[in-house]
Amino acid sequence: MNPFRPQQPEEEKPPSYDRHLADSTPFASSSAEPPELWRPRAASDDAAAASSGPSEAFYRAASASAPAPAPTTDVTEKPGSAAQEDDTADGVADVDPGPRELPPPEYTRQDPNDQVFVLNPPMIACAPTDAGPLVPRFQLAQLRTSNNKPYKLRLRRFTTTECRRLAHPGRRGPSALVEFDDDLTMYLIANTHALFPWSSPEIEIRGCKARTLPGVVELRRTVAAYQFWHVTRNDANDMLRPENRRRLEKYGYHADDEISRALLYAAEPLSLLSRDQRWRDGDGVCVATETGGALRLAADLDAQGKDALLACWVARCWLLGTLNW
Prior knowledge:
Elements: H1 18-23, H2 43-52, H3 56-65, H4 81-89, E1 116-120, E2 123-127, E3 135-144, E4 150-157, H5 160-167, E5 185-191, E6 203-207, E7 216-221, E8 226-233, H6 245-251, E9 259-269, E10 277-281, E11 286-291, E12 294-297, H7 303-320
Antiparallel strand pairs: 1-2, 1-12, 2-3, 3-4, 4-5, 5-6, 6-7, 7-8, 8-9, 9-10, 10-11, 11-12
Region (Disordered): 1-114
């Protein structure tokens, strides 16, 4: 040491914690192994454990208060028991479905028991039999040209409230008349000869509702009958389809090929000089008879066929001039 060199103060070293880290065991470290509980620990270890966390007595009390596991028993499961336990756990019990119920019948506003129809312009009354009470069910409305010629005829069905009100005996006066609702028009009958005498066909009937016949019904008069033809579009012979291109190039375009015609109803007299008519369908089956101004059904028809028959009957009477009001 140089005596002439001034003495420098010694640098203070920070305290070392290695000894404390070596004495303590980090339980949160993944590399350190937990202490063996069955070995007796020194008093210093008990003091360190008491200062660091809960004592061993706490763990003993917590383990003593825990519920004991339920004893397991060997039970032989029956087939289907697991599914029953699942249903019971979900709160759904097995219920016997019983006999299968039939679906409710389709709603219809037309009385299926009506078999007799009497034309009383501007209404059509119906009854189950000839002796039954007549109840107004349908209403007619007529549109005329400027020359006072009948041009269009509308047919619609009365609502339930209107039928009940018109069927009351004391309310059939002028105050009981119901205005025609164009939105409820079921069939529209047009007399094409009223505007164009050379036009053909003479009568056209068009359905205005979803449950009416699609397409157009045309009236053709022959020597012995009034024939009503149902005209619809034949999609199979549409010349715009690719499969019909070669046919179009070979034979040319014919409008009648895209139209399908089928005989719907035909009215023919019962005898040579009789005014009574017999109504037949396209298969030749007699479906109704017209005697004395009343139409009587002779076969079971669905609602669509019955409405179409009434429209054809009204169109024929309108063409003959018997609808005057």
